[in-house]
Amino acid sequence: MASNTPASSALTYPQLLRRLDARQYAPVYLIHGEEGYFTDELVKRFETLLPEEERDFNMYTLYGPESGADAVMDVCRRFPMMAERQVVILKEAQSMRADQLNRIHHYAEHPNPTTILVIACRGAKAKAKDLVAAVTKNGIVFESKKVSERNILPAIADLVKEKGLTVDPKALSMLRDFIGTDMARLYNEIGKLAFILGPGAMVTPEAVERNVGISKDYNNYELMEAIESRNAAKAFAIVAYFAANPKANPTVLTSGMLFNRFSNLLIYHYTRDKSQAGYMDALGLKSAWALRSYEAAARAYNVRQTIEIISAIREFDTRSKGIGSRQNEYALLKDLVFRILTSRGIIRMD
User: Fold this and answer.
1) Side by side, which strands form the sheet with 8-9?
2) Reduced to 3 states, what is the DSSP secondary structure of residue 215?
3) How many other C-beta atoms can be found within 10 angstroms of the C-beta atom of residue 66?
4) Which of 89, 138, 144 is nearest to 118 (CA)?
5) How does the average pLDDT of the chain come out, rounded?
6) How far apart are CA 335 and CA 349, in angstroms?
7) What are phi and psi for residue 31, nearest 5 degrees?
8) Is-contact 139 113, C-beta < 8 A?
9) Do residues 121 and 32 lie in contact, with contact meaning Cβ atoms separated by under 8 Å?
10) 103 near 69, Cβ under 8 Å?
């Protein structure tokens, strides 16, 4: 027989999945936060928690815009019919009035041990202080957080590890540049790689190119490497490839990558603690390997050049949206790469 898990919060997504797989259930779950992917996947898991033959009588799906707190609590206080437990899922709870959502804390403070209540606030944090406190005490609060551009590399690396794979640093950067922070797509693509490559395999650039559809020679990682080594011929060849394959290589991803890279390079230049640990802490890096590329970039572009380049990227972003220019965005990208490679550290004050 499954047992209720002790009250807990701050679980990661994989940890919560493992608890559900082990049938370690809490009486109340509050799933909220900006990243909709994790909320959707967890709700799907709860929808299949009961055996199929029990769902007709013991699975209840309520919707926030249509349900008041009293209706939710009344359903939760019922007893299951010829089964060990019932599951009550309150979807779109973020659409309830804040006072109505918060009132459910009266139930969460004394939950029915034969009910599993799942409160799902998709795309938003629950504005219900008392409810959050009660679920933290008697159940599980899971915050589905957006993964930032700054943290996406370690997040992808953790996901690859979770799937039983290892990853080449270049392949890791290719996945970041091509997929970004789209968690649904990341889980899908890395799950596909795990299925194709098998347990313990290394995710290589060739594997990414073959199975995800990113060129191992013409991608944002290679463009950044060409820029950092001032290899103009290679940089312009990559831009030409992007222009010939625009759907797979949108300029918004390239400019975003360049902006993040040179913004971090500016942080590198201004970091006071010049030790390896100091740089890694300032840049939020988890490996010395990732730091080496910043060391190379800093040798190629001094602080004034870096500031000039960031200004050029901002200008590209504006002009590529049709503001002050009617040029093709890939022609503008070619011009941007030229300006980066020939930067002299001239900072315009206008």
Assistant:
1) 8-9, 140-143, 28-33, 115-122, 86-91, 59-63
2) coil
3) 11
4) 89
5) 89
6) 21
7) -110, 115
8) no
9) yes
10) yes
In the block, tokens 């590209």 appear at 316
| Overall average pLDDT of the 319-334 stretch | 87
How many whole angstroms separate alpha carbon 53 and alpha carbon 39?
A: 25
Tokens standing for 4? 């209720």
Q: Which of the two residues, 247 and 90, has the higher pLDDT score?
A: 90
Q: Measure CA 39 to chain center.
A: 13
- How many Å apart are CA 219 and CA 237, to the nearest integer? 11
Q: What own/partner pairs with CB < 8 Å and gap ≥ 24 does 46-49 have?
A: 46/20, 46/87, 46/89, 46/116, 46/118, 47/87, 47/89, 49/20, 49/25, 49/87, 49/116
Which amino acid does the sequence have at 112? N
Residue labelled with tokens 């707190």: 69
Encoding tokens for residue 303? 């602080």
Enter the tokens of residue 265. Answer: 């390079």
How do the residues of the chain divide into helix, strand and coil, expressed in percent and rounded to 5?
Answer: 60, 10, 30
Backbone angles phi, psi at 175, to 5 degrees: -65, -40
Residues 348 and 311: beta-carbon distance below 8 Å: yes
**Do residues 264 and 270 lie in contact, with contact meaning Cβ atoms separated by under 8 Å?**
no
Q: 27-48, pLDDT tens digit by residue?
A: 999 999 999 899 999 999 999 9
Q: Name the amino acid, one letter, at 136.
A: T
Say if residues 32 and 144 touch (Cβ distance below 8 Å): yes
Of the candidates 167, 162, 153, 75, the one whose C-alpha atom is nearest the C-alpha of residue 117 is 75
Query: Is residue 117 a contact partner of residue 78, using CB atoms and an 8 Å limit?
Result: no
Q: Model pTM? A: 0.68
Q: Is the pLDDT of residue 191 over 60?
A: yes
More confident residue, 346 or 138: 138
Contacts of residue 173, defined as CB under 8 A and 6 or more positions apart, other chains included, come to: 153, 220, 221
State percent of the chain over pLDDT 90: 61
Contacts of 273 (CB under 8 A, 6+ apart): 279, 281, 282
Largest CA distance in the chain: 77
In the block, tokens 């463009």 appear at 223
